[in-house]
């Protein structure tokens, strides 16, 4: 009786959907599981890709911030401060054959090579700030030849504008004021000394800023701390001290972008000898010519910063960074309901290419002709 009823139901058209439904139900369940597992894998990869991109950008940004800061300190910043003295005029002395009836206090220091200027005029040195979209600020020292003053035995800044200028010779006396101008204009002792102290104080401050930037840069790149910390904070499947070792190691070897400060000690400066309204030429006569020679280290306790330049190893690293550093990072996949080891079979990883560059051949925008425009791009 029951068997007959079963055959009847199977021959019934309405009951014919039961058999396919019974067969398709496990397939539907399997598809749902597959979609769920695929979503887990996709989410894990997206998370690690974001972590790698964020870590690379964060770590390299510490380098760009440092290099842009050093480039700004290497001339543009002290130049803008010193340019204040262009509005303080000084007159020529009676009987002088110079053409200009007046010059500025800025001229006396600038013509001696005390500070570089932005372009385009490097003869007078007074220029407007560069445009925002400019890719060459044209930062150079004064464009003049050796001074005509017969007793001025000193070096100009010509040899400083090199990628590797070395260091200031210990026995060389660096000029801080121009003797020709002091000899022909009313540049008295009070004006000379007060202005000189202010400009040297500016450079001491710039040197302290450089030291602070250098310290922060080295601290943030030590053991790739920013890279590994940023990666760790964006994933949930690795330990803090083990995260992103593979990619951190690949990037870290190119982050030793060190700079070397160029400082001066022995200096030579001149001013006018004025008695009442009478100008008697240069003041401060010593055994080796007119003017005064001093050691900044003896007076202030330390040498005075002028600029910082890249080391040869740093320039090599910057060339590699301009071409891009390929980063690859393996990651763990979550367990699945099918108990299949996908890591062993597919070896999943994420990748990114990080580029750090500035608009100049050799990727050196630090010195000479500094340009604070290092930037970062990420490519897949």
Topology readout:
Blueprint: H1 2-11, H2 18-73, H3 76-82, E1 89-91, E2 102-104, H4 105-110, E3 174-175, H5 179-184, H6 189-221, H7 225-234, H8 245-252, E4 259-264, E5 266-269, E6 272-275, E7 278-282, E8 285-286, E9 289-290, E10 292-295, H9 296-300, E11 304-310, H10 312-323, E12 325-330, H11 342-346, E13 349-357, E14 375-379
Parallel strand pairs: 3-5
Antiparallel strand pairs: 1-2, 4-11, 5-10, 6-7, 8-9, 12-13, 13-14
Helix pairs in contact: 2-6, 2-7, 3-6
Tally of domains: 1
Structural class, by secondary structure, is alpha+beta
Could you give the order of the helices and strands? HHHEEHEHHHHEEEEEEEHEHEHEE
- How many angstroms does the end-to-end distance come to? 71 Å
Major sheet: order of its strands?
3-5-10
* Helix-residue proportion: 40-55%
* % residues in beta strands: 15-25%
- Main sheet overview: 3 strands, mixed
Shape estimate: rod-shaped
Give average pLDDT, whole number: 87
Whole-number radius of gyration?
35 Å
Q: Which spans have pLDDT < 50 for at least 5 consecutive residues?
A: 146-154
Question: Count of DSSP E strands?
Answer: 14
Number of helices: 11
